[in-house]
Amino acid sequence: xxxxxxxxxxxxxxxxxxxxxxxRFGRSxxxxxxxxxxxxxxxxxxxxxxxxxxxxxxxxxRMELGRMVGFLTADMGPVEGRTVSVVQTGGLxxxxxxxxxxxxxxxxxxxxxxxxxxxxxEKGVSFEDLDPEDxxxxxxxxxxxxxxxxxxxxxxxxxxxxxRGVAHNPVLFTTRTDADHSGALVSLGRDLRQExxxxxxxxxxxxxxxxxxxxxxxxVVTVIGITNAMLISVTERFREIAxxxxxxxxxxxxxxxxxxxxxxxxxxGAIFGTMVGIAFSLLMYCxxxxxxxxxxxxxxxxxVQYLGLSLVVGVVLSVIAAIYxxxxxxxxxxxxxxxSHI
Amino acid sequence: MPTPKIDPAExxxxxxxxxxxxxxxxxxxxxxQKTYKMGNTETxxxxxxxxxxxxxxxxxxxxxxxxxxxxxxxxxGALAKPTAGKVxxxxxxxxxxxxxxxxxxxxxxxxxIFQTFNLIQVMTCLENVTLPMAYAGIDSETARKxxxxxxxxxxxxxxxxxxxxxxxxxxxxxxxxxxxxxxxPAIILADEPTANLDQKTGEEMIVLLDDLxxxxxxxxxxxxHDLKMLKTSDRILWIEDGVIVKSASPDExxxxxxxxx
Lengths: 342, 261
What we know:
The structure holds two protein chains of two kinds.
Chain A: H1 10-23, H2 25-54, H3 56-76, E1 83-88, H4 94-105, E2 110-115, H5 121-124, E3 135-137, E4 146-150, H6 157-164, E5 171-174, E6 186-187, H7 194-236, H8 238-246, H9 251-288, H10 291-296, H11 300-330
Parallel strand pairs in A: 1-2, 1-4, 2-3, 4-5, 5-6
Helix pairs in contact in A: 1-2, 1-9, 2-7, 2-9, 2-11, 3-4, 7-11, 9-11
Chain B: H1 11-14, E1 25-38, E2 41-54, E3 58-62, H2 69-76, E4 84-89, E5 92-93, H3 99-109, E6 110-113, H4 125-135, H5 140-153, H6 169-180, E7 187-191, H7 199-216, E8 219-223, H8 227-232, E9 235-240, E10 243-248
Parallel strand pairs in B: 3-8, 3-9, 6-7, 7-8
Antiparallel strand pairs in B: 1-2, 1-4, 4-5, 9-10
């Protein structure tokens, strides 16, 4: 005569779970926020990887320029307010152009330009990138703090002698690494020494390791937060759960209820979190680099993969976090529904 | 304190069985014992309670706090199993049932009314009433229809889509009664159903329960201190210190005497 209680269709569990969350919206939002933050962080780190891969060349260029300016100021002193003489021996490379622009940005007061190249006049004007107010066509040296030799041409011996003879002994620099001037000119474009290269690689690896650690810890904190919030929710809802058991609800049904809640919260939190993470990372990069460059060089394929990964991680972690609270809920005694005082 | 053991043979004499004995026993309990272990201490909530409840009877159980009333109630309502002794609900020995079977029993045979109403706040009245039917595997359309009928019968046909928070206490308890009747149970278990209601609403509830009982033939077992409810009952049981010490019909009791209170 006695039969086994029916397994309830998932649909009903889903319905109860969804309505429950709608009513308890405020509490759910707090839990969801935890997921949003954790997943946003994960997604931001992943996006950063993708974007930095895309702007790698630009990043490299900027690092080199920074190094060159570093060498310059080490020997010459600060750039701001100074006058510098530029001697052009040939066509300028992009790096050389950008170096001059950078020096201008850093507050260089005046550039005295001397063109020793064979490039015909129409083609030879190489300083058009610079603000005309800052540039003066003049003789070599002349009150300059430093003389920078740029261009792909050769510097003849007598020209070099001229440079060395300039009054007030300005520091002589060259942007080329291959020029052999027997140490007369300080090379700005020097390659990194082996140990400097290794130091950079080590630094990068350290920071990657650190990022990974932070992501792991933040996700662990997210999971703990969800478990905590759900345990509180289960304790608060003891009467509801016990009543459902009185009406015939099985332990499995109760467990399913809470797991569904966790899945929905995890999914919505992950969706929101990935959007926040991507936006944040892209914004950070766009502040430093050109909008155009960032988006042009973005590998959307990998980004979408990472997006999918973050969503899955969000849902899976939420469900894992809910396992213990759901278990506690399923073990509640129906007799607890009779308790009129806690 | 000695625990009186009741011989099933003397059962009928002790409980003054009337001509109702021809009717079916819907609940029988023999020498029920329940012990709770909390750490190193043992609490003997029930020390050999025995009772019989007939089909269609309106029974009230009274007892001070700590007397084992709630524990006995749990046994009768298939909410817990006895440590020793037997409890038969509709001729089924609940001591042999597993969790799933107990759930089936609770779903189909017993309806519950609680002091705190215990309606699911996130569901509408109709959904609350149809929930036991869903647990019973009844399809949603049939359940809906029956649910509406029940709500109309208890006078809440105009509130089927409201949530419990939008109803008064009395209305909520009525929805709870409707929910208890959802699967046409044999027994309705009511735990202090009028305790959270004002006097007038409480009286309406008692009348409603009695009407339903007479109409549908359900057995009502309630734990209560409500005088009106006790007077409406067919029989009152007293439980003290884990044993049933007295059974009487309301006519035989002087409700104003100090002995009673």
